[in-house]
TrEMBL record, chains A, B:
CDD domains: DOPA_deC_like. Homodimer. The modification N6-(pyridoxal phosphate)lysine is found at K311. InterPro entries: PyrdxlP-dep_de-COase (IPR002129), PyrdxlP-dep_Trfase (IPR015424), PyrdxlP-dep_Trfase_major (IPR015421), Pyridoxal-P_BS (IPR021115). The keyword Membrane does not apply. It catalyses: L-glutamate + H(+) = 4-aminobutanoate + CO2. It comes from Cyprinus carpio carpio. This is Glutamate decarboxylase 1. Belongs to the group II decarboxylase family.
């Protein structure tokens, strides 16, 4: 395809042949990438520093120019983009809550981009709008809301889904805020645990509550909210004249994978008439498993639930749902009735135009890949996947809990796939507990991680938490992972860490 | 591939062959769809009512089940999903500001989904993060900010980009709102025109300002803000003790395609120290054209700019940028410093971890398709595309402005590609002006539109505006459109409307 330029492609006259040839060459690059992603002899990444990539790697120049490149160069750019990226579908990529490369999901995304449409109206996305509606209903049924009644929408990620929950809670209790602003409400306070996702704090800043009006709740040693602390703080806030309006319970915290006790929290929310949101971005997937869904007992009492199929259910990024028990609130909260988009005099039933529920105008089609995966796996397929990932985590937990050189961050079997641990290199093992050991241990995980990335063999997350120094957080959500990959990770940590 | 199930696919042992075969069958479906999209003998859509699709069309069942479907059925589902959808890339699809199917952009999206990663850190999206940075800088240079300095981020659509602008304006003037909430600020008011996009109103509700604190500005007959009205309303607000904090100037309004006079608005904003945002979601693309960019004169004086490459520049959905002139504000406004994601002790320069600027946590990769298109077209390719679309609109304008049965909604050549007009069927032409004619005319556009959709021949938008009854809004952003398609639209309107 040397020196062919894009003006030969469709919509050019006789552009069909070039177009098909070009697309098939792209697909060839992509299928090769897919093949290698699953091949354990391929590296997870080929690490380069920002300045290296910016300076340009042999023939890969990121700069944008006035003049067009040939299609041949475009294909090289595609190859290079993949070459210097990270294989998030690799069986040894454990770095994020989202990992894996589901082939059906991938096909779904390819189709979605080919359809290139927008979720705001039935008019231009009839099939996708209906798929979203049916899938949300199914999710609400699984949550346990009678007949799957309620409402919901897919949003651009869990942080936005959580933001929706705060907005809807505010609208439910103080609908006049929509028109009059926060000045129309008393001083509103929100509650969430110290271990909860930072998006709740972000929402409190964005929506005009202010982060100091988000009250952090204490957790037990496993990172689960202590309900008595919630009640004490609700009472305290009321005594100060503040109005408690929203409680977030986390189902599967980001670092520990902890599940807050929803039923006990729900009792308090009911008693004080506070909106209960369950952030199941990470843990929501466990609802698909008869074995593990008890960890979310009480979720049916929530007023709203965040659930990200792009995390534990292996759906490609992005796919996040906010589900609301009471119908009409999303619409009431967000509708602006734009006449040019949501004309009331269309020939079809315009209640299917769901765009006015959203804070977005245009909205990406995130539903199709998920719907297609559900079709291809069935509900039982998701259950098997969840159960398998949790088994792998148990395997890791049992492998390291008494192993020399490891210390668990919290005791007991993990509730989710999160296994949090310190690797203690031989040189630190005999040091007495104290500040020196802490400081040296704090540097171990970042060093091992940096070496992993430079070798390109595997990736796993680390972070400090509260007064705990940097530790590894291992998670499993990728269906390609086997016990041998878990073994590999541990071997690699020991190989890279033994001389630190 | 009969009765093959997904468990045969990768990561299954020996799943490679099945996987490649399955993906190639999907690609075959998609390339056929692409081919037909550009074929004018193909319908734009095959319309069905929601209840028809929900009841199930021969073999196409939207319901989700417990048990898996075969891969064969999955392929049928893919075909049916496309069959009952809308071809937004068809040369006769004029319904939205986003249309067209760019082949390079499509290839970019396929690659993006195959890479399946997340923009929040350099760690897992090194190439994409750098592409975003370089592209945003290029856009800022084109806006006219010295050396392309400033900041920005790609967001999930223009509504969210506009919301960012309001947030950043608030943070600039009242940074304490982040911590203390809206109670820490006086009564803040925002200004935007009656013709502006509803997302500004949405932002005022979401962020806790309240929609009544968004003051609507009068426009001239072409939908452009009257600067004197802005100044009068700013003075009035201040006299009432309110604090003007944000002005939105629209560059390319949704319905009329109007460009507010940015320089005159900027003078007022500077005089009263008010944040100036330019919503160029639709019109920003004209900055790429030496011929048309004067319509945005003064844009370099804005504090922030929304610019959606997925509209006038033909990039696949979604691709929207918010650009901010002052560096550091986005970060200051949104950062929460989550320790598990933005570790300060990584081995690379962590200023490339841009996730803490966003209101999202995970963020979809929207940059690659745009970057790849820019590479393949060069800056001059975008310019040609813009100029061509505007020429086509002029062609339409001149074709109908004196044609029998047409009336223009506003006089004069369109500023953007929006051509707004009434088609007046013969039966109404002799009616005297008055309420009866208005009422009957109000029904004409919806009726013609419904028939178009049922015939599947073309799609164009309509809406009322202010006291004007339903009219057609024709727009061109699809590079596949030719004069013959414009002619077709007019013929079709007359064919369908002549007996109304």
């Amino acid at each position: 395809m040397k020196e062919t330029v894009r003006t030969n492609l469709l919509p050019a006259k006789n552009g069909e042949e070039y177009t098909m040839q070009f697309l098939l060459e792209v697909v060839d690059i992509l299928t090769n990438y897919v093949r290698k992603t699953f091949d354990r002899s391929t590296k997870v990444l080929d690490f380069h520093h920002p300045h290296q990539l910016l300076e340009g790697m042999e023939g890969f120049n990121l700069e944008l120019c006035d003049q067009p490149e040939s299609l041949e160069q475009i294909l090289v750019d595609c190859r290079d983009t993949l070459k210097y990226g990270v294989r998030t579908g690799h069986p040894r990529f454990f770095n994020q809550l989202s990992s894996g490369l589901d082939i059906i999901g991938l096909a779904g995304e390819w189709l979605t981009s080919t359809a290139n449409t927008n979720m705001f109206t039935y008019e231009i996305a009839p099939v996708f709008v209906l798929m979203e509606q049916l899938t949300l209903k199914k999710m609400r049924e699984i949550i346990g809301w009678p007949n799957g009644e309620g409402d919901g929408i897919f949003s651009p990620g869990g942080a936005i889904s959580n933001m929706y929950s705060v907005m809807v809670a505010r609208y439910k209790h103080y609908p006049e805020v929509k028109i009059k602003g926060m000045a129309a409400a008393p001083r509103l306070v929100l509650f969430t645990s110290e271990h909860s996702h930072y998006s709740i704090k972000k929402a409190s800043a964005v929506l005009g509550f202010g982060t100091e009006n988000l009250i952090l709740l204490k957790t037990d040693e496993r990172g689960r909210v202590i309900p008595a602390d919630l009640e004490a703080k609700v009472i305290d806030a009321k005594q100060k004249g503040f109005m408690p309006v929203f409680v977030n319970a986390t189902a599967g915290s980001t670092v520990y994978g902890a599940f807050d006790p929803i039923n006990e929290i729900a009792d308090i929310c009911e008693k004080y008439n506070i909106w209960l949101h369950v952030d199941g971005a990470w843990g929501g997937g466990l609802l698909m498993s008869r074995k593990h869904r008890h960890k979310l007992n009480g979720v049916e009492r929530a007023n709203s639930v965040t659930w990200n199929p792009h995390k534990m259910m292996g759906v490609p990024l992005q796919c996040s749902a906010i589900l609301v028990r009471e119908k009409g609130l999303l619409q009431g909260c967000n509708s602006m009735c734009a006449g040019y988009l949501f004309q009331p005099d269309k020939q079809y039933d315009v209640t299917y135009d769901t765009g006015d529920k959203a804070i977005q105008c245009g909205r990406h089609v995130d539903i199709f890949k998920f719907w297609l995966m559900w079709k291809s796996k069935g509900t039982i397929g998701f259950e098997k996947h969840i159960d398998r990932c949790l088994e792998l985590s148990e395997y890791l937990y049992h492998k390291i809990k008494n192993r020399e050189g490891y210390e668990m961050v919290f005791q007991g079997e993990p509730q989710h796939t999160n296994v949090c641990f310190w690797y203690i290199p031989p040189s630190l093992r005999l040091l007495p507990d104290g500040e020196e050991k802490r400081q040296r241990l704090h540097k171990v995980a970042p060093k091992i991680k940096a070496m992993m990335m430079e070798c390109g063999t595997t990736m796993v997350g680390y972070q400090p938490q509260g007064d705990k120094v940097n530790f590894f957080r291992m998670v499993v959500s990728n269906p390609a992972v086997t016990r041998s990959d878990i073994d590999f990770l541990i071997d690699e940590i020991e190989r890279l860490g033994q001389d630190l």
